[in-house]
Amino acid sequence: MLAQRPPMGWNSWNTFGENINEQVVRDTADAIVAKGLKDVGYEYVVIDDCWSLRQRNEEGRIVPDPKKFPSGMKALADYVHSKGLKFGMYSCAGTRTCAGYPGSFDYEFIDACTFAEWGVDFLKYDFCYKPALANGPILYNRMGMALKASGREILFSACNWGSDSVEKWIRSAGAHMYRSTGDINDSFDSFKNIAMSQVDKLAYSGPGCYNDIDMLIVGMRGKGNVANGGCTDTEYRTHFALWCLFQSPLMIGGDLSKIDETNLELLKNKELLALNQDAETRNPMMVRGGDRPIFFKHLENNEYALAFFNFTDRDGWGDIEYYDLGLTVASGYGFKFRDIFSGEETGVTFGHFSTGIKAHDCRILRGTLVKK
């Protein structure tokens, strides 16, 4: 079964937009291996919009742009596969893609067959230019069936931006992950607002079909197709921690040929990735909202995560009464936590826990229940 855990990989859109080509894809596949990203679970290399010619050929098939992809998609897929990685592509449920290239509306079975022949393992499926009378469920279900009929196992990444209450039906349409938000940009406010918009919808996400809160902006530094001022290292860490805690698919959006060591190590942080890839795949509960939200998450092996975030522009405090987690003093139990960034152990605490949190930062604790 595909997507037992949230899928991980890289997508071209955030950095390259329409300036995608086969050399970028080959170089990215090389970098995923050379920089140790494959070793920690990143496996999909996905081409987003703008890869084809503007018109289909006489047989009704989409044609890769020969200037951008002179070797063809089959050869490119073979190269990605030779690195032990998987190859992904993009299409759209409408008559055109968001950038105006041929969409798959009415051509779903032809396109799915074409993708399978090329060796595609992942399809991101957008939602622009759909006919007004065609609703999301029928369009995504149609492509879901087409992919299964293609004869190749292809992960189906639905991207309808949260339209039509997508979380309520997309699993039934055969998708393995689904975009539930508008597009991210490289700024603190963008990732904060996207994450918090999904708190009430996380319960729909789980094995086989995960809520995708968009590609990562980690390490982009205000460069690329979705540049908007960029983020600090602290903010990128908060962004990545949120995505991991929420068990979103992790699709790197930065240029791996230029990423700095700090953010490369963040993307490989095994403690955060363990939260994202936890075997129980349980979504966190929000214990407290507002600008300093607190989340609690059940993990495998009788462990738990307690996460504090500070979205304000000033340093502050996070404080939780264990009663708000359901743990009374009379129970005789407390928590013993370890800070996943510093490794510092908190000791056993009963009744409540307080911690300082710097502006735009977070503190993530992992631990167990301990009997008094």
Q: What value does the Rg take, in angstroms?
A: 21 Å
The computed structural class is alpha/beta
CATH class category label of the largest domain: Alpha Beta
Indicate the percent of residues in helices.
10-25%
**Beta-strand fraction estimate:** 15-25%
Superfamily at the CATH H level of the largest domain? Answer: Aldolase class I
CATH topology of the largest domain: TIM Barrel
CATH architecture of the largest domain: Alpha-Beta Barrel
What is the string of SSEs from the N terminus onward?
EHHEHEHEHEEHEHEHHEEEEEEEE
Whole-number total of structural domains: 2
- Please report the distance between the alpha carbons of the first and last residues: 42 Å
Tell how many strands the DSSP assignment holds. 16
Outline, from the CA principal axes? elongated
Q: Biggest sheet, open or closed, and with what strands and sense?
A: 8 strands, parallel
Unreliable spans are none
